[in-house]
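Progress report, Aim 2. The chain analyzed during this reporting quarter is listed below.
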Amino acid sequence: MALILALALAGCAAPRPKVEGFRDAGAGLYSNAVLDPARIAGDWVQVAAFAAPNAAACAPGRVSLAPAAGGYDADVALCLPPGRAEFRGRAEMPVPGRITLSGADPQGVGEPWWIVWVDVDYRTMAIATPSGRFGFILNRDGRLPQDRLTAAREVFDWGGYDLTKLRLLGG
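Predicted structure tokens for the chain:
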């Protein structure tokens, strides 16, 4: 009897939010509001990205952020679904931990980037999107140590990302 009652009540429960892209939209997601915007300037190598299991292989991307009045001059070439995404122009951080690429396709690479984690020495940075359409890991060079990969994975997992879809890029 108790089992029947439990099953009946489960049928009345609210359905889980629809998963868009690589993230459960019902999971919490927060950007890093305490990071130092000046310390993310410089050159980054894309070392991992979320991708569909049948997605074509993609070479590591890159992001360069040069300080400019009120933001950055950005040069971006990333491996994102459905393939290579490029942008060159103005990047701004309207609130700490959130980057917008001015004039970029808001349904593509121009979707707001949320910095969900950066290590204490600003060597590795995890970027997510609230929609979950993409997420990626940047590193100052192409060698991502296991401890920082583990930390980034934990943050993505907490944010509702499907870690089975996180693919390391390059060697």
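The first strand starts at residue 19 and ends at 20. The two ends are 57 Å apart (CA to CA). These observations will guide the mutagenesis work planned for the next reporting period.
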